[in-house]
């Protein structure tokens, strides 16, 4: 009787252990790839799934998007400038079976191929293109990776260049170039302003020549503007100066005439 009870207890414990060994929970964002005796058996959907202990092995594969930082790579551009370029890639598994069967470690494989692709694509462009055409570089890298990762059951959804490090000498050269460009634009704008001002002054002078009173009105307006603040500056309009000169000449002539008559 005692031996029977012990046997039942042992059988019960073994049954419980086998039960827990056979139960697998596949989450909503996962798929389970089942290998039976080392060969592909089937693909399990999310939920509670049972496998045969020891005989079956379930490998869970996540279908969520994975963020993959691509560490900075020392790259020589087409115009022989050494730069450090880092990026970030996003991918997801679309074929769980291929991601298990075709490649040993899909994340490591994508990381390595992304680094080499980054060096290859950036190295085919000049520095100016690398700095200004990042969208084109992102598209080229993504297109190249899609061809490779499709065989591994993965899909690259996005690639973005994250940082471009330039040598200090190149930074100084680019700063000088930018400063020279700004100075050139400033001089061009100033010259255009001078030309426009000269043209408008020409139009104004023609108007004043046609209307002599306009010059006197402008002179009076200038005197009013100058006399707003308390100052010691005294302005004499040009017509007034000519009038004073004519009056002085008249006085001199009258004095000379009076002296002649006195004699």
Overall description:
This protein is an alpha+beta fold and 263 residues long. The strands form three sheets. The chain has a three-stranded antiparallel sheet. The protein has a three-stranded antiparallel sheet with strand order 6-7-8. It has helices spanning 2-22, 96-101, 106-123, 127-132, 134-149, 168-210, 212-226, 238-262, and strands spanning 23-26, 30-36, 39-44, 47-50, 56-62, 66-76, 82-93, 154-165. The chain is rod-shaped and about 175 Å long. The protein has eight helices and eight strands, in the order H-E-E-E-E-E-E-E-H-H-H-H-E-H-H-H.
* Anisotropy-based shape: rod-shaped
Q: Major sheet: order of its strands?
A: 3-2-5
What is the helix tally?
8
Beta content comes to: 15-25%
Provide the succession of SSEs: HEEEEEEEHHHHEHHH
Largest sheet features: 3 strands, antiparallel
Which structural class do the helices and strands define?
alpha+beta
Span from first to last CA? 176 Å
The helix content is 55-70%
Number of strands: 8
What is the average per-residue confidence, as pLDDT, rounded to a whole number?
A: 82
Spans of at least 5 consecutive residues whose pLDDT stays below 50 are none
Radius of gyration: 45 Å
For the structure shown, list the relevant keywords.
three-stranded antiparallel β-sheet; 263 residues; alpha+beta; 8 helices
């Amino acid at each position: 009787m005692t031996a029977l009870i012990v046997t039942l207890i042992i059988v019960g414990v073994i049954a419980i252990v086998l039960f827990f060994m056979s139960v697998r929970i596949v989450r909503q964002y996962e798929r389970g790839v089942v290998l039976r005796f080392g060969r592909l058996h089937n693909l399990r959907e999310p939920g509670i799934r049972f496998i045969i202990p020891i005989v079956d092995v379930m490998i869970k594969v996540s279908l969520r998007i994975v963020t993959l930082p691509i560490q900075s790579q020392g790259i020589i551009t087409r115009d022989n400038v050494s730069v450090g370029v880092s990026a970030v890639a996003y991918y997801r598994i679309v074929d769980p079976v291929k991601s298990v069967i075709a490649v040993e470690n899909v994340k490591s494989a994508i990381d390595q191929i992304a680094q080499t692709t980054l060096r290859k694509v950036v190295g085919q462009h000049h520095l100016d293109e690398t700095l200004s055409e990042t969208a084109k570089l992102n598209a080229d890298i993504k297109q190249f990776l899609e061809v490779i990762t499709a065989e591994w059951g993965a899909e690259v959804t996005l690639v973005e260049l994250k940082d471009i490090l330039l040598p200090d000498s190149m930074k100084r050269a680019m700063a000088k170039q930018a400063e020279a460009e700004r100075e050139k634009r400033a001089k061009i704008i100033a010259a255009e302003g001078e030309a426009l001002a000269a043209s408008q002054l020409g139009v104004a002078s023609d108007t004043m020549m046609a209307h002599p009173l306009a010059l006197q009105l402008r002179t009076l307006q200038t005197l009013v503007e100058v006399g707003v603040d308390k100052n010691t500056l005294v302005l004499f309009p040009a017509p007034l100066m000519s009038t004073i000169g004519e009056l002085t000449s008249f006085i001199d002539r009258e004095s000379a005439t009076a002296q002649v008559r006195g004699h």
